[in-house]
Specification:
Elements: E1 6-10, E2 13-22, H1 28-31, H2 34-43, E3 53-59, E4 65-72, E5 83-88, E6 91-99, H3 105-118, E7 125-128, E8 131-134, E9 137-141, E10 155-161
Antiparallel strand pairs: 1-6, 2-4, 2-5, 3-4, 3-8, 3-9, 6-10, 7-8, 9-10
Length: 164
Amino acid sequence: MPEIPEIQSRDEQPYVAIRTIVTMQSIVRAADRTPDVYAWLAANGIAPAGPPFLKYNVIDMARDLELEAGVPVDGAVAGDGEVLSGTLPAGRFATVTHLGHPDELADTTGDLLAWAGQQGLRFDVSDGPVGERWGCRVEFYLTDPREQPDMNQWETQLAFRLAD
């Protein structure tokens, strides 16, 4: 893995998001909701407090995935309509920052999961009848596509919460 994973402590972070149920083949639909979250923030006079993200709540590779397209905010915000509010939990996270095309994130994710296993780390995840339920598994999109149109130069940070 060219990127070097590390363990980071993160503080809790309030956010607003739109939750979407997708399949692996239609996962881009979830990311397509990010502009709607930004529009909601602008309409409510709220400034983003960090880069947009996709938060994976439930993963069933054969069926559905429950994702949230979100944006961090500075304090607790009440969502409305399809916009919900939440808080990314504090804790220790296995992280890696990937420089390259977003299509390569599946490989980077697999590498991060393998690295964590080699380190004897356990993630905040449980199996259930609808798939893996994650305590916090996030992809932060650090590159603004308006400033860097070359997707091969995009920077994305994966942050997966470790079990206590």
